[in-house]
Inverse folding.
């Protein structure tokens, strides 16, 4: 695929360059020059994509040999995954909600500090509650895709590849909800996402070998794009372009619900595509929105009262047991505030 794309890019550029010499109109020349510059940029991107893809293939070729126990992790994650037998109808409904800039600012700068979470971890919690309202199950699984995630994986014992884009975009995440304890639900969603080994790349490799009878991807999808930084404009343009094709892809997939969360221009936009009935789709989105606002308000309350809570993943590089108990008869633990 990469070679054909590269060939097409080069041929198109050559034809435009030849055409540029055959016209005299200054406006047309400028237009052609802009197109040539655009194609040159795309050509460089194609070279980088081919190089990254080759590195990714090499890095994942023997991945399961160097990560022998990861297959058991994925099998365990999907052990209680819900199997949806059928889809209600073939019609697809699409709706969107937008968080205003003020709410987004409080969400990013204050609410996430209550449990030392990332925004996506609070979104996962809200999705878990919305699914609980929909299917009455307190444990649900989603196919998670983070378009900005990078990989740091071992090719062999002597060589590591870092910051390599992933070509397997989805992996399952387990969401467990405690209906009567929002605080516990947030912490469980946070730890569930952070427990995923190696940014999820192992799921694709392990599921292909399928030595542990790993299940298929869940039928609830979440695509999370953080385009908040200036350098993310290209990612945002790509996401907007992909939106044109998502409808057809979703219609051919076995997913029932697909959510896309985009953070850009100081706002969060949540878009849903659903094969459920129009009524259930609207109800699910309303529940998602109300649950998200409840979570934000809950976290803002804790933040303002300075009741900050931490979990185990916040101290991955801190070993209080060794530091504090080297010369102590009775062991004790000290965690930073």
């Amino acid at each position: 695929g990469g070679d054909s794309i590269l060939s097409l890019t080069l041929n198109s550029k050559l034809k435009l360059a030849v055409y540029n010499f055959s016209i005299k109109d200054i406006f047309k020349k400028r237009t052609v020059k802009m197109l040539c510059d655009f194609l040159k940029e795309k050509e460089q991107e194609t070279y980088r994509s081919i190089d990254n893809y080759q590195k990714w293939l090499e890095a994942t070729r023997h991945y399961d040999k160097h990560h022998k126990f990861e297959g058991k992790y994925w099998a365990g994650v999907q052990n209680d995954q819900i199997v949806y037998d059928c889809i209600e109808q073939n019609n697809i409904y699409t709706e969107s909600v937008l968080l205003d800039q003020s709410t987004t600012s409080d969400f990013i700068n204050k609410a996430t500090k209550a449990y030392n979470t990332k925004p996506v971890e609070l979104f996962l919690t809200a999705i878990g509650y919305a699914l609980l309202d929909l299917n009455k199950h307190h444990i649900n699984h989603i196919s998670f895709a983070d378009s900005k995630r990078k990989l740091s994986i071992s090719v062999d014992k002597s060589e590591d590849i870092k910051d390599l884009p992933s070509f397997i975009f989805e992996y399952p995440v387990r969401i467990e909800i405690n209906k009567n304890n929002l605080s516990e639900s947030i912490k469980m969603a946070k730890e569930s996402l952070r427990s995923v080994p190696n940014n999820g790349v192992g799921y694709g490799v392990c599921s292909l070998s399928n030595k542990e009878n790993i299940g298929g991807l869940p039928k609830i999808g979440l695509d999370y794009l953080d385009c908040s930084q200036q350098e993310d404009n290209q990612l945002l343009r790509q996401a907007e372009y992909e939106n044109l094709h998502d409808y057809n892809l979703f219609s051919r997939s076995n997913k029932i619900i697909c959510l896309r969360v985009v953070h850009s221009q100081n706002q969060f936009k949540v878009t849903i595509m659903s094969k459920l009935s129009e009524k259930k789709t609207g109800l699910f989105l309303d529940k998602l929105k109300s649950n998200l606002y409840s979570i934000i308000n809950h976290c803002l309350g804790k933040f303002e009262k300075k009741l900050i809570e931490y979990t185990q993943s916040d101290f991955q590089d801190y070993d209080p047991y060794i530091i504090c108990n080297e010369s102590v008869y009775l062991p004790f633990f000290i965690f930073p505030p």
In short: The beta strands are 93-99, 139-146, 150-156, 159-165, 171-176, 220-226, 257-264, 267-274. The chain is about 50% helix and 15% strand. Residues 1-10, 153-161 have pLDDT under 50 and may be disordered. The CA atoms of residues 146 and 286 lie 24 Å apart.
